[in-house]
Structure formats: C-alpha cells, structure tokens
Amino acid sequence: MASQANSRNPQNEISQQSNSIRLDLGKLQKLLDLLDAKEQPASQANRQFVRWPFRHVCVPLTITHQAGSRSTIGVACRNISCGGLSVLHNAYVYPNSQCDISLPHCMGYNVEIPGKIARCSHLTGVIHEVGIKFKEPIRISDFVINGSQADALSIEKVDSTQLRGSLLFIGATELDQQIVRHHLRDTSVRVQHAANYEDALKKANAGADMIILDSEFDASSNPTVLERLRTDGVIVPVLSVVSGVASVNVKGGSAVKPDAVINRPITERTLQQLIAGLLKPDGCKGLTASSLPPNHPSLCLVKSFTDEVKRQAEQLEKTITEKSTERSILLCRQIGGVAPVVGFEALADLARRAETAIASSMSVDEALPDLRRLIAACRKTRG
C-alpha cells in the first residue's frame, strides 16, 4: 500500500527502492533543497498553477516512445501542481512523449495519471529534470497531506474578470464586508452577508457557491457553525478568516475543518486566488457531476448511478436514526466502490472518509459530519 504524500517526512516516503538517479532519501533531499534555493522568483511569473513540494524517492513512470514501445522507470519527485509534476531522471526524455505516472493518494492507494512530457532540462552530471503535464488537472489534496489549502491556492495567476459566483460571508463585521467587496470589485462574484446561523443556513441552501466564515463567529457556538453547516448538509467550500496564527483561531478540537484559511489583513491577491481555487469551473466534476468525457463508454451508467446513490442517501439517513454502524459502513463502501467507475471520484473519497470515520470510532454519531456531507453530495448528484 502506498504511503501518504508528505514532502519532508522520511516516514511517509512512497518507497525506498532505487530511482534512476541512484540517490537515497538523504542525498535527494539535499539536492532538492539546493535546487529550490537557486530557483528565481522570475521563473514563477508565467506559471498557471502553484507548485507544491512533493518529495518521493521513487514513483513509477511509464513512457510511450516514438517507435511505440513502452518502458517503466523509477523516478524521484520534486514538486507537484494541479496541472503537472516535476521529476528527476538519469537521461534525456523527448518532449511530447505520452506517459503515465503512478502517484500515491493520501487515502493509501496509487492513482495512475496520464500525461505527456512537457520539458526536459539537464541539471548536473546525468541528472535531468523532467516536467510532466497531466492530461486533466488533479486535486492537490488527493496527494498532499492537509492539502485542502494547496487545492484552494492552486492557481498562480487569476483573471479577476473571470471570477463569478455567489459568496456568503457569515459573521463578518461591516469593515470586513467592505474589504471583501472592495477586493472583488472587478469580478462577477456576488457577496451576501448573514449575521446568524438561521439566516446563514437559509441563504446557503438558496444557492451560495461558497462561504466565507469568520473564525471567531464560528467558534462562538458548540457545535461550531461549520459543524452545524456540514451536519445540515451544506457541502459548498468554506473559507475561514482568522486573525493571527490560524491554529489559534480555528477551533482545534473540531473534526470538521474549513476547506481553506485566510489570515487578516485580507489581501486582494490571496483572496482572489482562494476564490478562484475553491470555485474552479469544473469543481463539481467527480462530486455531484461525472468527470467522464462525452464519448466514454461508461457514460450510459451515470443516470442509473445517480438514481441509486439518491436512494442510498435516504438509507444512510435511516442508519443515523437507527445508529446502525454496520449498515452505514456497508452503504459507504458500496458508494465508494462504484462511484469511480462512472466518474464520481470525489464522491468516492467522501464515502471512504465517512467509512473510515465510522469504523475508527464504531459510532455513527462521531462520524455525523462526514456522513451528512456524503448524504448531501449524493442527493445533489446529477446525470
């Protein structure tokens, strides 16, 4: 089973097997530290996606060569973005070569991702840095521990004129509201405000695409506002606004965390980056809408699947009332097992998280936030 992705923790490396550049963990870390230190800020100017450290000793890369043959090599990873990956190899690889790379998912299994070689540059000795462009963007949080913040900050350059949607600001002061509206003045994002939970729930259910939540207001009730929202089936992304160090202000004992955090003072660039990341146009793909392409042979199964998961959502509601742990685990397992086949990978992740939460405590009540989020997502799936 693959280890979880963690850029600096040797215990979380995917493998200790040899990579093509013959560097062990210690030597690889030193080389990558040196490369990161030498990188110039100017090199980031034209990047579409933000890169995040992703240091793995060895992952399998399968390349389709120009003659049609395929070969698999072990490469060392340097960093990752939602659009691609940087790896180190001991030879030159031709750009535009098709490839597949097997990456360790945070849930403990490997995911094979198709792509192509975008670039290959010589670094030192026999070592080359190979840039891989994914065929389709990925979610960083699938591959980096605590990567929800990385997901939200995945877009390097934001076109403010392309930002649109409905944003609900809960518990904000008048000044915070003015600041947010000012930072979004050149966008098509509509901002609403809610001063209490009842109003917030009503407006969230009326069609908010995203929520900004003041952390002090969030922690003012027990359970927290965020816990209540998730329990009441609100699944839209939540951005928490904190003052000072986030870990002090975001309620540490809560099992339910925001999708991202922004610190005061709120800057225009960071706010727009986070909104762009949380409101990606394809953000519903894999969760409430299928990610399958129009010509995929399994697309004909999507309607049957969405009908079935809506029935399973009602059955999960009954397991909560009856406090049936075994039945709820079985339903989560059924949803998680079928969802990826028809392009609902994110829904499968929710099901696995809910199953894990129930199994770890053997209590439906303890896993209620995860179950509620799964139920809400199942009800909102569409064919």
Task: Write a structural description.
- The structure is a single chain.
- The chain has helices at residues 25-38, 148-152, 174-183, 197-205, 215-218, 225-231, 246-249, 268-278, 302-322, 325-338, 345-361, 368-380, and strands at 52-53, 59-64, 70-80, 84-89, 98-104, 110-124, 127-134, 164-170, 188-194, 210-214, 238-243, 260-264.
- The radius of gyration is 22 Å and the shape is globular.
- The longest helix is centred in the last third of the chain and has 21 residues, at 302-322.
- Strand 5 (98-104) and strand 6 form a beta hairpin.
- It contains twelve helices and twelve strands.
- The protein is an alpha/beta fold and 383 residues long.
- The two termini are 33 Å apart.
- Residues 1-16 and 246-252 have low confidence and may be disordered.
- The strands form two sheets. Strands 2-3-4-7-6-5 form a six-stranded antiparallel beta barrel.
